[in-house]
Amino acid sequence: MKKARISLVVSFVLIFVFMSVASGFNSDWGRVEIRDVYYPNSEGGIIHAQLFVPANASSAEPLPAILNMHGGSDYLQTVSNYSIELARRGYVVLSVDAYGSGSSDYVSGAVATSSGEGKTGQSALKMDGGASLGIEQLLSYKFVDSNNIGLIGHSMGGTYIANAALDYPDNVRAIMPWGSGSFVDKMKSSNSADYKFNVGYINATCDEMVVFATGEVTSKLMDDDALKAFVGTDTTIESGKVYGSFEDETARVIYTPSTTHIGNIICRDSIASLCSFFEKAMPTSSRLSPDDQVWMYKEAFCVLAIISLLAFIVSLGFVLADTKVLSKVNSTAVIASVDTNRWIKALCLVISIVVPGLTLHKVGLWLASKPASPFMPMNWANVLLWLTVINSAILLVVFLVWHFACGKKKGASLASYGFKAGNGESVLKMLLTSLLYAVIIIACVYAIVNLCYAMFKIDFRFWQFGIMPITLKRFKSVLGYLLGFVFAFGVMNTISIAFASVGSGNGKGSAVKQYVLAWLIGAGAYTAILVIYYVGLKTTQRPPFFMAYPPFATGHPNSLVLSMKTTILVPTFTIISVINTAIFRKTKNIYAGWFTAAILAAMIMITTNAFAC
Q1: Closest CA to 266 of 78, 457, 88, 73
Q2: Is 49 helix (H, G, I), strand (E, B) or coil?
Q3: Strand, coil or helix: what is 32?
Q4: Is 39 exposed, middle or buried (0-12, 13-18, 19+ CB in 10 A)?
Q5: Contact yes or no for 538/260 (Cβ under 8 A)
Q6: Secondary structure class of 242 (helix, strand, coil)
Q7: In 3D, which of 610, 534, 600, 528 has the Cα closest to residue 570?
Q8: Which residues, 6+ apart, have CB-to-CB distance to 95 below 8 Å?
Q9: Distance of alpha carbon 594 from alpha carbon 597, whole angstroms
Q10: pLDDT of 341 higher than 80
Q11: What would the pLDDT profile of 478-521 be if each residue is shown by its tens digit?
Q12: Angstrom distance (rounded) from CA 432 to CA 328
């Protein structure tokens, strides 16, 4: 109890220390002020953005400004590394949550999901994710030079900003999409003279979305006749070479850093290329070199904060379990490993580990074609949830076959898998206590997450993974996702006990084995896919697991998205498996870790995915 309390206090303090340091790097140690801003669209919805304002910004000496748009189904925090590096160099930066993403309201129809030009239906909103509204917002600030606006955008955001820029030729001086296959197609089909501003583009050597959009790897694209015509050359395009003139606003530059589509987010060369381009297109008084970057330190301290948050959750679980009010969460039931043929049990364990990898793309592509609903309004959250539920249903069948064929013959019963309470204990009371226990833990977690965001304007994140603050609008959608994860983690906890003997044995060797096997069941297959995918992509410059699905006969882009989602699935299931296993080992109660894991998974899903209806 004493050790748990000490760990609780230390981890709590470290969370705020690490987030404070991360915030220091994110705000350039006070030289950049970061504000949350909200403004309406013409349909009555609200757009959320973060505004990065350098300390020397004033109406007397307005600064150049840059609009930053994230990619499809992401949110502004995923591209925050670009925002801070530009703000450090003297640019006002407005980083926008696109329609339905982050804290921005969803708008219906193609406006929210298409990167096409113009308007749609009766809506006055343009199909640019809110980029035009972002430009208007920047133009409303007196400390912004209205004739010195730049735009950047990742993936679909790249096409968003290109479409918006064409409507503001008198204000926009430069644009730089990055990792946007649709913008590559746009360049190849456009007249370069229509872009009356400087155009840069980051075309990473291993950008899988460019391979999907064009059918070609970067090295071949640099010799594409249509792309050469846009740039203004008859020879192979050279990376980083300026074609045209920055002074005449006819500059065309393509950079080719050695990274992938989402690798751009944490790539020094990509960020240096962007900074170098804007220093030429829209110079400021900054003397920082493009290689002088601090975003990686922010990311590092955010990782330390995530680890501290994980330690806090486990410590809080231990402390709560020893309190008088919640002591009933501890079970006196003895869970012993069912003594069946170890090779059959090992086979069942292997099946449990590999099934998520076998279904990720084939089943995921089918799920991605299904529309969202008001009850479950987030497309990609739906895909990841239903994948987890379907995998769990398959594993439930495996478990039932094993139980009736082997386990039951050796005396296995509900008590063997932790479903029964100990002598004199009520199962119902244990269920209700476990639910209260889980709710208190997750409420404390999100109180910290929301408080840290309010204080520091950053979330707990690394790369694509994030633990985001919860809003009432998003919390209203939790029930559908929670029900799915309750089923899924109930199955996973059962097979962890049955096949991996989690909960039985207290030695150090036994503990390590249980944590590892529980992690393998939750994240093992996704980790393998992540490694295979990125090693294959970096080696061949073409993505593995690029699978056909109607209407794309040569490869569906969602198969690439599913592979990229492993960068979210692996840390999510890693954190949850550690919490789940630790709580179960402490309480000997299958429900306590089960409910805690389910609620946390549901909260992560609803806070990090875009609304689709």
Answers
A1: 78
A2: strand
A3: strand
A4: middle
A5: yes
A6: coil
A7: 528
A8: 49, 50, 51, 52, 68, 70, 76, 79, 80, 83
A9: 5
A10: no
A11: 999 999 999 999 999 888 887 776 555 555 557 888 899 999 99
A12: 10
CB atoms near residue 333 (< 10 Å): 19
Instruction: With a cut of 60, say whether residue 57 has pLDDT above it.
Output: yes
Token pair 């801070």 is found at 84
Q: How far apart are CA 349 and CA 293, in angstroms?
A: 45
Question: In 3-state terms, what secondary structure has residue 38?
Answer: strand
Place of tokens 């398959």: 394
Q: How far is 407 from 165, CA to CA, in rounded Å?
A: 66
Hey, how many other C-beta atoms are within 10 angstroms of the C-beta on 213?
18
Q: How far is CA 593 from CA 2, 435, 598, in A?
A: 21, 10, 8
Residue with tokens 């198969």: 559
**Region for 501 from its dihedrals, namely left if φ exceeds 0, alpha if ψ lies in -120 to 50, beta otherwise:** left
In three state form, how does the secondary structure of 463-528 look? CCEEECCCCHHHHCCHHHHHHHHHHHHHHHHHHHHHHHCCCCCCCHHHHHHHHHHHHHHHHHHHHH
Q: Give, in order, the Cα–Cα distances in Å from 302 to each of 121, 267, 446, 597.
A: 43, 17, 16, 22
Q: For residue 161, which of 151, 174, 170, 169 has the smallest C-alpha distance?
A: 151
**Rg of the chain over CA atoms, in angstroms?**
26
Of 125, 128, 64, nearest in space to 96 by CA: 128
Q: What is the mean pLDDT of residues 307-319?
A: 97
Q: Which of 23, 49, 47, 60 is nearest to 100 (CA)?
A: 47
pLDDT number for residue 132: 94
Residue ranges of the alpha helices (H) in 124-261?
Answer: 131-139, 156-166, 181-189, 208-214, 218-221, 225-231
Bridging pattern class, strands 46-54 and 92-96? antiparallel
Structure tokens at 137: 């917002």
Q: Could you say which DSSP state residue 587 is in?
A: H
Amino acid at 128: D
Pairing assessment for the beta strands 144-154 and 63-69 based on DSSP bridges = parallel
Could you tell me the maximum CA-CA distance found in the chain, to the nearest angstrom?
85
Strand boundaries in 498-597, DSSP class E: none
* Residues ≥6 apart with Cβ < 8 Å to 181: 155, 207, 209, 210, 211, 212, 213, 214
Q: Report how far residue 454's alpha carbon sits from residue 240's, in angstroms, rounded to the nearest whole number.
A: 40
Average pLDDT over the chain, rounded to whole? 91
Q: CB neighbours of 222 closer than 8 A, spacing ≥ 6?
A: 203, 236, 237, 238, 239, 254, 256
Chain centre to alpha carbon of residue 90 = 28
Question: 442 near 599, Cβ under 8 Å?
Answer: yes
Classify residue 159 as exposed, middle or buried by CB count within 10 Å of its CB (0-12, 13-18, 19+): buried
Given a contact cutoff of 8 angstroms between Cβ atoms, the answer to whether 477 and 606 are in contact is yes
Rounded CA-CA distance 406/344 in Å is: 9
**204-to-199, 221, 262, 534, 554 alpha-carbon distances in Å:** 16, 11, 10, 14, 21
How many CB atoms neighbour CB 601 within 10 A?
A: 26
* Contact criterion met (CB below 8 Å) for 76 and 153: no
Per-residue 3-state assignment (H helix, E strand, C coil) for 381-426:
HHHHHHHHHHHHHHHHHHHHHHHHHHHHHHCCCHHHHCCCCCCCCC
Q: What 3-state DSSP class applies to 150?
A: strand
- Tens of pLDDT, residue by residue over 165-186, are 999 999 999 999 999 988 998 9
Return the closest-CA partner of residue 389 out of 525, 460, 484, 497: 484
DSSP-derived 3-state class of residue 293: coil
288 is written with which tokens?
């920082």
